[in-house]
Amino acid sequence: xxxxxxxxxxxxxKVSMIFPDGTKALDQVSLTVRPGEFVSIVGPSGCGKSxxxxxxxGLLNPSDGHVELDxxxxxxxxxxxxxxxxxxxxxxxxxxMELEGVDKETRRKNAALAIELVGLSGFExxxxxxxxxGMRMRVSLAxxxxxxxxxxxxxxxxxxxDEITRERLNDELIALFLRExxxxxxxxxxxxxxxxxSTRVLVMSDRPGRIVGDFExxxxxxxxxxxxxxxxxxxxxxxxxxxxxxxxx
Amino acid sequence: xxxxxxxxxxxxTGGPPALVFVTFVGAWYGYSALVGPxxxxxxxxxxxAVVQTVFGDLSNLSELLKATWVTTKVASVGxxxxxxxxxxxxxLMSQAKWIERSxxxxxxxxxTVPILALVPxxxxxxxxxxxxxxxxxxxxxxxxxxxxxxxxxxxxERGHGDLFLLHDAPRLTRLRKLHFPAALPAMFTGFRISAGxxxxxxxxxxxxxxxxxxxxxxxxxxxxxxLETEMLIGGIILSALLGIAMFQVFGFVGRAITxxxxxxx
Lengths: 249, 265
Description:
The complex is a heterodimer. Chain A is α/β, with parallel strands linked by helices. Chain A has 7 helices and 9 strands. Chain A starts with 9 loop residues before the first strand and ends with a helix. The mean pLDDT of chain A is 89. Chain B contains 11 helices and no strands. The relative contact order of chain B is 0.12. The A-B interface holds A 57-59, 74, 76, 78, 80, 82, 84-86, 95-96, 98-100, 127-129 and B 157, 159-160, 162-169, 173, 177-178, 181-182, 184, 258, 260-263.
C-alpha cells in the first residue's frame, strides 16, 4: 500500500537544530514520510526526537536544512493529551475545526463521526477530568482526525499508559491508519511498539540526534497480536535494539 | 472528602468548629463574670444580653438589618466595579510586558497605602455619600482581582498554547478560548478575597465619613458613642455575616462555573 511514487507528505533535508543556549539537538537529519507510510523514530531520551516533530509541525524553525510539507493540514498528538479541561469531550474534539473556521453544522457532524471512530460514544458531555488516560488519548486522536490530516505526528502518545491500554490503542491506531491513509510519524522509546505499528523504523543516536538506522518492517496490515510473537518480529526488534545501542556512545 | 468526614458524617465536619464556638462563648461568659458581675455591663456584656438586645427586639434588629442593607449595596457596587476594572487591567497587562511593567507598581501602591489615610482625601474630593464609599471599596478590593486574574492568564500550559499556535489562532481567539477560561479558577480566588475586602471598605468608608445614609460603619460609631455595647457587638456580628455571605456567593458561583472541570476550592 506504500506508493513510493507519490509526493512525500513530509521531507526533512539535512535538518540541524541548535538552540539559542548552544544545545545541539539535531545533526543533519534527513527523512521522508509518504502518504500511507507509517514511520517511527526510536531513540534514547533527550536525543531530540520531539524536536523533529516540533520542527515538522512548524512550532520550531530549524537552524539549518530544509523542511517540506505537502499539506499544511497536519494532525498532532502530544505525549500529554493536552485537552482543554473546561471543554467537554465534544467541544474538545471540535476545537481544531473551530480554529480553522469550520461551520457549526459540519463541526457537529465531523465530531460525531470522530467520536464514534475512537469508540467514545456516550461520553460527549464528559469533561476530561472524568476520563481515564486512554480515553483522553482517544479524544486527542479524534480531535486531529476531524481535519483529515495528510500527515499525522505522534509524540510518544502512549508512553504514560499501562501496557494493556497501550496495546489496545496500538490496534486502534492501525485501524485508523488503514482507514484514513495518512502519513504517520511516530516518536516512541518502545521498540516493540515501533515495530508493531510501522512500515519503517528509524533509529536516532544520542544528542545531537542523527539517524543511525533505517529498518523496513515488511509485515502486511492489518496486524494482530500474534505478530508480537513472530520470529521475524523478534529478529527485527533485536536488530533495532542493536542499532540503538551502537548509536548510544 | 476526608476520611474523618466519611466516618463521622456531618459531626466530623461541623463538630470541631462547633466545639471551638462553645469554648469561645464559655470563655466570654467567664470574662464577663470576672470583669463586672452586673446585668448591664458596658465593657463586656454577657452573650445572652447581646442576643436579647439584638435579636430579641425587632426594632433593634430591623435597625441593624437596614444598615446592613446599605452596606451591602455599597460593597456590591464597589466590588462589581473593581471586578470590571481589575479584569480589564489584568487582560491589558497580560498582553505585553511593557504594559505590565507600567501599571504593576501602581497596583502595589494601591495595596500598600493604608486605606485609612486615603479616606479623608476621598471624602474631601467626592463628598461623603454613596460615591465616595464605593470608591473606597474599589480601591481596597482591586489588587487581589488584578493579581489573581493576571496570574491565571499567564499560567496557561505550554501544550495548550501549542494547539492554538499550530492553527495560527489570532491573539483575541487565544485570549477568548484559551487564556480567559484557563484563568477562571484563579479569578474566582481573587473575587472571593475581594468580596470580604469590599465589605471592610464599605464599613471603613462610612465609619469615617460619619454622615449620609446610615450603613454599618456609622451605626458602629454611633453605638460606640452612646455606649450601646450590645448593639455594637450586634453590628460586628452582622458585618462578619455579610463578609462571609459575600465570600460564599463567589465560592458558589465559582463552583457552578468551574466545578465540573476544576478540582479544589
